[in-house]
Amino acid sequence: MKRRRKIKKRKKSRLNILQIIVVLLFLLFFITGGVASGLVYVCVRDLPALKVDTLNQKGPSVLYDVYGRPFAEVKSENYLPVKYADVPKVVKESFLAAEDARFYRHHGVDFWAILRAAWANISRQKIVQGGSTITQQVVKNTFLTPERTLKRKIQEIILALQLERRYSKEEIFLSYLNNIYFGEGARGIGAAAKTYFNKKIKNLTLADAALLAGLPQAPSYYSPYRNPKIALARRNSILDLMVKQGFITTQERMLAEQEPLNLNKNRVISPSHYSYPYPYFVDYVIRQVAKKYGEGCLYRGGLKIYTTLDQKIQRSAEQAAARTSNFPFSTRDRQGTLQPQVAVIFLNPQNGAIRALVGGREHVTSLGYNRATMAYRQPGSAFKPIIAYAPALEYLKLTPNSIILDTPVSFSDYRPRNYNNQYRGPITLREALAYSINIPAVKLLNQVGLDQAISFARQMGFTDIQSTREGLSIALGGLYKGVTLLQMAAAYATFANNGIYTAPTAIIRITQANGTILEEANPASHRVMRPQTAQMMTEMLQAVVSYGTGTRARIFGFSLAGKTGTTDQGKDIWFCGYTPHLVGVVWMGWDIPRFMPGVSGGKYCASTWRQVMLASLGIKELPEKKWRKTIPETPSLPPYVPGVPETNLKPSPPTPPESPETITPQPKQPEPIIMPPDTQEPDIPQEGRDILSPSNKDASATKNELKEETKEEVKKENLLGQPAKKDHQQKKDMFL
Question: What's the rounded mean pLDDT across residues 279-295?
């Protein structure tokens, strides 16, 4: 009896478990089906309409400035549409083999190809095949955004099925051939035949067709002009596919493989690629858009690209960069490039919007070398505020009036020195930065700690800097890799923006021809330092322009902040300056660093920066007038000597302070290096609160306002700190 009861209990328990499993499977199926149905409903609801004229409708992408005015078209004039009857058999079969061998057998979507591609990708643990048909590619390039999401993939499948019902196979295939991008500025098979082989499409050989069929997946990588060996291997792989799929025989493949590339040696890329105005800025935008959405979408997608460009500032920057008198000399190197070179960037510190960008003195080729964004150069003393002074104010709670001893110092593996081994003794941080003295910067960095200072700099956008590769010489701008102009502009913008770093951006919004929004700018921002630290740094940098090494940047009636930089032998010279509304960085030097005698950032770069700033302020060149000093000079410091690097100033012997309040030296106590500041929160002097006001009569933030700013952290607001707006016109206004 007991045994029977146990058996019954076991059966009941098994039934209960089975029932639970069935119920769970049913619930899972129900939930999954519901989710899938909901997803399909959302995808169908947002489907774009298939218009009759959309399949072959193309146009250039248009760039707009920050005020919504069009200023450039980005397009490919190298476009030769062909008729289906003119496409030879070898061309059709080459593309079918490469892209969609079952094109004439499916109805827009090849589910077997999708499964086959998925299995191949899983077995090799990388993406080696794609499952998209030619119809799906036409849909993707014509009707949808290039984003890779599940929703977009479902929409692509639905539209591909609809497209097959509305258009013939020949119309779809011809649209694909006429609009696919082949690289080198060629859009469509007709232009590609002309560009690569200088032939009409009807004269293409089997080898020619196979090479062209291999290009669309990665036009730059498979380009026979850039990578001939890779292009040849790609061509031969297409020929192998044609044999496997029965389009050609093995003998035909062998004969085609023996053919050399026979490229068009006299190809001419359409001048429209670089005939647009403001070419360096446009190049920068083109690179960003092409990287994200592809060259085909850029050159033929009819995009509307709303940028942050201010044409007035851009024109003045280009004029200053082209003005010969702004350079110590002008010559051409062996490659015919004008030297020394220049790069200029101006941006809005509040939202990171790039107002002007110039990457060289001449623009000779499309998408060439852009010194403003690509060149890594040594920043010299322009890096002192970022790596030494700002961290010292932030972490050591110093003030501009704190005293540091400008005396010889030696470390285990580094011994910095001032020019001619001259030292000034006790000196304020303000004066040390104004005259760009070396020893104080190194001592400050050592006091803060290399790791902490580098972490601080990384928050300001210098993500390439690593403490394992740097030493204390970084205090003087000696970096392992160097920095870019764009990084320096964003870093100085952090000072101007009360300690908040905002990633630079050149694009406000991108829309498709049908109005679909591809992206909207939302630059990342975060607080790097206290508002007090940024305010004090601005006060100290005002001293640089007022009476220090950057006096050539002065504009009468305006309080400006900035810092010069001159590396060893003048190989790199800089000026980084700002107002509350505009930050500008100017760099000069040879492309291959070379000695430039008698130059300094305080002379040539500061003067160039001033010209652009005058234009941005709408001010004509003003006669030199005596600059009202907002901060008194220390008598023991010599005046700045133009043409002499700021780290090489020849000081006069230190003189006793005029009053005990000015400097309080402690000669018998060499340590600590930095005399402790007042224990209370540092009181920002009036000239520091009047930071960068357009007139000396205008007052800026009060102390109460400063405390309010301290409480405020970075909020999820728009780029000007205002409540978020839904209207796109209001979104654009954020960048004005």
Answer: 90
Range of the domain at 166: 78-269
Please, which pLDDT band fits residue 516 given cuts at 50, 70 and 90? Answer: confident
The residues, ordered by sequence, that sit 6+ positions from 602 with a Cβ below 8 Å of its Cβ are 549, 550, 551, 552, 564, 566, 575, 640, 642, 646
Q: What is the pLDDT of residues 398-417, one digit of tens each?
A: 999 999 999 999 998 899 99
Mean local confidence (pLDDT), 623-645: 38
From 93, 99, 470, 539, the catalytic residue = 99
Residue pointed to by tokens 């076991």? 10
The residue written with tokens 């850029």 in the block is 298
Q: The domain spanning residue 105 has which CATH number?
A: 1.10.3810.10
What is the C-alpha separation between 422 and 403, in angstroms, rounded? 18
Number of H helices, E strands in the chain: 24, 18
Query: Contact, 581 vs 670, CB < 8 A?
Result: no
pTM exceeds 0.70, yes or no? no
Residue 440 lies in a domain: no
User: Would you state the torsion angle of the CA atoms of residues 358, 363, 366, 371, taken in this order, to the nearest 10 degrees?
Assistant: -40
Residue 148 CA to its chain's centroid (Å): 22
Number of domains in the chain: 1
Is there a catalytic annotation at residue 37?
no
Q: Is the residue at 165 inside a domain?
A: yes
Residue among 76, 381, 436, 559 flagged as catalytic: 381
Closest CA to 583 of 609, 554, 604: 609
8 A C-beta contact, residue 117 and residue 101: no
How far apart CA 234 and CA 228 sit, in angstroms, is 10
Instruction: Give the integer Cα–Cα distance in Å for 680 and 197.
Output: 77
Rounded CA-CA distance 639/420 in Å is 16
Helical (H) or strand (E) element with 206: helix 206-213
> Does residue 32 have a pLDDT over 60?
no
Beta-bridge partner residues of 500: 527
CA distances from 591 to 179, 594, 595 (A): 39, 8, 12
Predicted confidence (pLDDT) per residue in 62-109, tens digit:
999 999 999 999 876 677 889 999 999 999 999 999 999 999 999 888
Contact 301, 513 (CB under 8 A): yes
> Two tokens at 378?
């040594």
Strands 304-307 and 61-64: parallel
Mean pLDDT for 595-607 is 94
In a domain, 130, yes or no: yes
User: Is the confidence at residue 682, as pLDDT, over 50?
Assistant: no
Task: Convert the pLDDT of each residue in 549-600 to its tens digit.
Answer: 999 999 988 889 999 999 999 999 999 999 999 999 999 999 999 999 989 9
- Whether 687 is catalytic: no
Q: What pairs with residue 342 in β-bridges? A: 588
pLDDT category at 343 given cuts 50, 70, 90 is very high
- Asked if 200 contacts 80 with a C-beta cutoff of 8 angstroms, the reply is no
Q: Is residue 233 part of a domain?
A: yes
Q: Say whether pLDDT at 28 is over 80.
A: no
- Residues 247 and 106 sit within 8 Å (Cβ to Cβ): no
Q: For residue 577, what are the β-bridge partners?
A: 562, 584
User: Which residue in this structure is represented by tokens 């600059």?
Assistant: 627
Asked if the peptide bond before residue 379 counts as cis, ω within 30 degrees of 0, the response is no
Q: Residue 81 has what pLDDT? A: 87
